């Protein structure tokens, strides 16, 4: 009786590659077995100054075409009526930094106008947007203040909110690591589609996330890749992010550097 000897080929597998492969399998199974929650990107400010629509006739309406930039004059107070505009700060050297996204019925530059700093900013519309510019001198006029005290309260609250946005961003940059800051941006600037104040935006880029997180866009790319590999996130697009492990995403948000 002939005996057949089978010689099986021996493959040398690099340990790191093998572990990565096993991790990939585990994460894929974890993601498939998890409940996907799709969250949509939204602006920082939405419907903050909706009551100013009552006096639109006192302002001048204008439109921005896609990718058009607008620099407000020093005394112009700009209200976004429809669409989303991005507020950029500009340094004397020409460097610029995205500060926040402004949605419908919200002032884009209230704080800058009040401090005479419009020359250090510009507004960018990635999609078509409709705006109204008011003469800011009106907010210092006693007759205007007496006639519209509720609008002045509304304006003050709006400026306070943008100031808080700056303060929290500085706090996060000082005390939280990059992964935490990226996770915070994903959680703070998203909401479910049926949220009461939902305003969908479809232009969120990794560069935008990097500006809001105070880090480099390459770092954001690496963080997102790791979160996907770990089964925390799924697809991340300019419109939405798919979350598979919300509890872990929230834990990562709290990590201090």
From TrEMBL:
SUPFAM superfamilies: cAMP-binding domain-like, Winged helix' DNA-binding domain. The keyword DNA-binding applies. Keywords: DNA-binding, Kinase, Transcription, Transcription regulation, Transferase. GO terms for molecular function: DNA binding; kinase activity. Residues 176-247 form the HTH crp-type domain. Gene3D superfamilies: Jelly Rolls (2.60.120.10). Pfam families: HTH_Crp_2. It comes from the Bacteria. GO terms for biological process: regulation of DNA-templated transcription. The keyword Ligase does not apply. InterPro entries: cNMP-bd_dom_sf (IPR018490), HTH_CRP (IPR012318), RmlC-like_jellyroll (IPR014710), WH_DNA-bd_sf (IPR036390). This is cAMP-binding domain of CRP or a regulatory subunit of cAMP-dependent protein kinases. It comes from Desulfobaculum bizertense DSM 18034.
């Amino acid at each position: 009786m002939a005996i057949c000897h089978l010689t099986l080929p021996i493959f040398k597998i690099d340990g790191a590659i093998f572990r990565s492969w096993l991790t990939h399998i585990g994460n894929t199974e974890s993601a498939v077995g998890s409940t996907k929650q799709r969250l949509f990107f939204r602006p920082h400010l939405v419907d903050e100054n909706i009551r100013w629509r009552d006096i639109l006739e006192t302002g001048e309406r204008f439109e921005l075409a896609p990718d058009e930039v607008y620099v407000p004059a020093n005394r112009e107070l700009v209200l976004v009526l429809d669409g989303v505009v991005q507020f950029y700060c500009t340094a004397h050297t020409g460097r610029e930094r995205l500060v926040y996204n402004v949605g419908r019925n919200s002032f884009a530059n209230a704080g800058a106008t009040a401090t005479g700093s419009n020359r250090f900013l510009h507004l960018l519309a990635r999609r078509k947007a409709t705006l109204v510019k008011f003469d800011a001198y009106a907010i210092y006029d006693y007759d205007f203040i007496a006639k519209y005290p509720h609008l002045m309260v509304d304006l003050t609250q709006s400026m306070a909110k943008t100031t808080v946005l700056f303060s929290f961003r500085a706090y996060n940059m000082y005390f939280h690591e990059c992964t935490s800051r990226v996770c915070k941006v994903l959680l703070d600037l998203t909401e479910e589609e049926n949220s009461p104040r939902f305003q969908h935006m479809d232009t969120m880029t990794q560069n935008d996330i990097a500006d809001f997180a105070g880090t480099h866009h390459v770092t954001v790319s690496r963080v997102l890749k790791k979160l996907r590999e770990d089964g925390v996130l799924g697809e991340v697009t300019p419109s939405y992010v798919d979350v598979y492990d919300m509890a872990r995403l929230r834990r990562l948000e709290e990590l201090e550097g």
